[in-house]
Structure formats: C-alpha cells, structure tokens
Design brief:
By secondary structure, the protein is an alpha/beta fold. It has helices at residues 10-15, 18-31, 38-51, 62-72, 89-97, 141-151, 203-212, 234-244, 247-264, 294-303, 333-341, 353-367; strands at residues 55-59, 80-83, 101-104, 126-129, 154-158, 166-167, 170-171, 178-182, 196-200, 217-219, 222-223, 271-272, 280-281, 287-291, 342-345. Helix 5 (89-97) links the parallel strand 2 (80-83) and strand 3 (101-104).
C-alpha cells in the first residue's frame, strides 16, 4: 500500500510552529498571568479585527460560546430557537442546556439552513435563529437577517467551522447579532486544546458575557449572576496569537485545496460538489462531497490508504437523545438524503499536490471500474 493519506495531520501542522508556540507559552509562565491574562486581551482584540466586529470575548469552547450568547439574551425555559438538524450535536445541545427548545428547519442544497422555510417555523415563543455555517460555507445571511428583523428576533450564528469565511464581502463573525466560534484543534484557527470566541457589536451583550464566563463575578468579592467558569485559558490564547499570524496562509491554502478538488472532480458525474452561493467566500473547514454508493467508495479509498470522514452520518433529530423532541424519519427529507450521500475528503493545511491527485484519481477510478 502507498503511504497513508491521513484525514488530518495535527502533528505535521504544528512542526513548523513548534518553537514559536513554546516561546509564547514560556512567556505566559514567566509572567504568571494564567487566568484572563495579557494574551487573552490581545487575542480578543486581534480576533475582533479579523471578524470585523467591535468586540470579541474569549471563552473555553464553541459550545459554551453558544450557551453564553443565549443566556446573555435571556433565552431560557420555554423559549424556542430555530436551527438546522444536520450540524454537529453541540449546536442543539447548547439550546437544550439553556432550557430552550430547538425547532429544526430543513436545509438547502448548500447544506445550510433554508431561509425560505424559516418564517413558517416562527411562533410567539421564538427568540432566536441559529444558522450554522456548515463546513465553512456561509449560510444565506441576508435573507436570514431579513426574516429575523421582520419578527424582531435575534440571530446567533454558529461560526464554529467558518473562521475566515466571508459573505457578501463581510467576514463571518460580523453577520449576526452574536457570532460564536470554536477553536478546537480540528478547526481552521485552532488551539492546542479547547477554546471558543464570541463576537458582537452590542456593548451590553459583551458586558453580560464577561460576567457569565467568570462565575458571574463583577469583582473578586461581588457576584451578580449564578454562572460557571468558561474563561479562555491564557496559554491557549498565547498559542492562538502565534497561529493568527499565519492564518492568512492557512486560509488561502485551504481555499487552494478546495479549488483543486472543484476542478479535478467536476467531470465525475457520480460526485456532487459543494454548492457555494455567489456571495460566499468560504474557507473550507471540511470539503464535503455527495456521492453515489458512499459507503463502498469510503471503503475503497481506505483500502488505498486514504482516510475520509462523514460530517455527519446521523442528523440530530434522529439521534437517540432527540427522541422526545417529536421528530422522526422523513421530518427533514433534504438533510436526511444528504446524510446518506456525504463524504468528507482530506482538506487539512499541509495536504500536498501529490496527495490531492491521489485522492481525486482514486475517486475517479472507483466509478470507472
């Protein structure tokens, strides 16, 4: 067998930056500012600039970013939040944890929430729409925001997979009322551990989230909210500052990989390529194709030393934990159909031209057998 093409290569990605990262970590150790230290403040400022937002707040995960965003808006028991059913389970979990009820809306061919279906799902209990920019492809935010404005509800967009993407010329992170990011090791801008960010232009929301991420403490001796500990770690912020200096190269590299795949697989009729709106400029977190005979192709590629993944094989409404939400097979036909066809091929930073050629040729060979 030829040398393995991994699905992701975190070890290789960090090799070039190792010395810079160790130096940054040593700086935190020397200063001793381990909690909400200097690097957190610097990273928040830089991240806000990257996203074109006035404010950014560092938290400990993308899931907590969503939870704190909803809590800051007072979303809780009995409220409803509209969201797609084909995301990672964390987006819906955040809604449930807040005491609210997820209301799913089917997706379009771009695999993002279908804005044409949102209005029919709005009720007097609806407090927010939570689109997910799946795989790094921005949702149709102009339409989503128009519906939200009409009904005077908030837009909290889940940007976990879309750092660096743009929609209609604007960076993701400046498109909703509150935008939430994950800095998980598999993301485009990634920590060496967990981390999350929240961006917004609303100063009152910022003040509330800063309290909520830090046990509700106004100062060391005054607590104004019951809340948990969701601070972005200073060491992770220092690492992220290093990576932010290289992010433009990372983003353009992922876009180049996507362009190669789009061209190389364009004439393979059994492959449906990602659908990208004219207004979208994605930085692909995942490169997801829809294919005939998905499971057989996945096994064929693995036999040839090519690892792939599926994002995500079971829609959230069909997960065992979602049984009491009242949905079932057939509730969201587009999302369910796509779940049976989707396959994620390697698209990590550092993937070589030779590896890309091997992947695309192997896919062609499978259908030409």
């Amino acid at each position: 067998m030829s040398e393995l093409v991994p699905y992701v290569d975190l070890k290789g990605q960090h090799a070039e930056l190792k010395e810079e990262i160790l130096e940054a970590v040593a700086g935190v150790i020397d200063r001793g500012d381990f909690v909400l230290g200097e690097s957190v403040r610097k990273f928040e400022t830089a991240f806000a600039e990257l996203c074109g937002s006035k404010f950014a707040i560092g938290v400990n995960s993308g899931t907590d970013a969503l939870i704190l965003a909803m809590r800051a808006l007072g979303i809780g028991e009995g409220d409803e939040v509209i969201t797609p059913p084909n995301s990672f389970v964390g987006s819906t979990s955040a809604i449930i944890v807040c005491g609210a009820n997820p209301v799913f809306v089917d997706v379009g061919e771009d695999r993002n929430i279908d804005p044409n279906l949102i209005e029919t799902a709005i009720t007097p209990k609806t407090k927010a729409i939570m689109p997910v920019h799946l795989g790094g492809i921005p949702a149709k935010m102009e339409q989503i925001n128009a519906v939200a404005k009409k009904h005077e509800i908030a837009v909290i967009d889940d940007c976990a997979q879309a750092i660096g993407s743009r929609y209609d010329g604007q960076p993701v992170g400046s498109l909703g009322d509150i935008s939430c990011f994950s800095l998980h090791p598999l993301k485009n801008l990634n920590a060496c551990g967990d981390g999350g960010m929240i961006t917004t232009d609303d100063e009152k929301v910022v003040e509330e989230i800063r309290l909520l991420r830090n046990l509700g403490l106004k100062d060391r001796n005054t607590c104004v909210h019951w809340s948990g500990n969701s601070r972005l770690d200073t060491i992770q912020a220092a690492i992220l500052l290093v990576k932010l200096n290289h992010f433009e190269r990372t983003a353009s590299g992922r876009q180049s990989i996507a362009t190669y795949y789009m061209d190389a697989l364009a004439n393979v009729s059994q492959v449906r390529l990602p659908v990208v709106d004219e207004a979208s400029e994605p930085v692909f977190h995942t490169f997801v194709i829809q294919v005939d005979d998905r499971d057989a192709l996945k096994n064929y590629l693995l036999e040839r030393g090519i690892k792939t993944s599926i994002h995500y094989p079971t829609p959230i409404h069909l997960q065992p934990v979602a049984e009491d939400l009242g949905y079932g097979e057939g509730s969201f036909p587009v999302a369910e159909r796509q779940a049976k066809d989707i396959l994620t091929i390697p698209g990590f930073d550092g993937l070589t031209r030779e590896q890309m050629e091997r992947i695309t040729q192997s896919i062609s060979d499978f259908y030409n057998r």
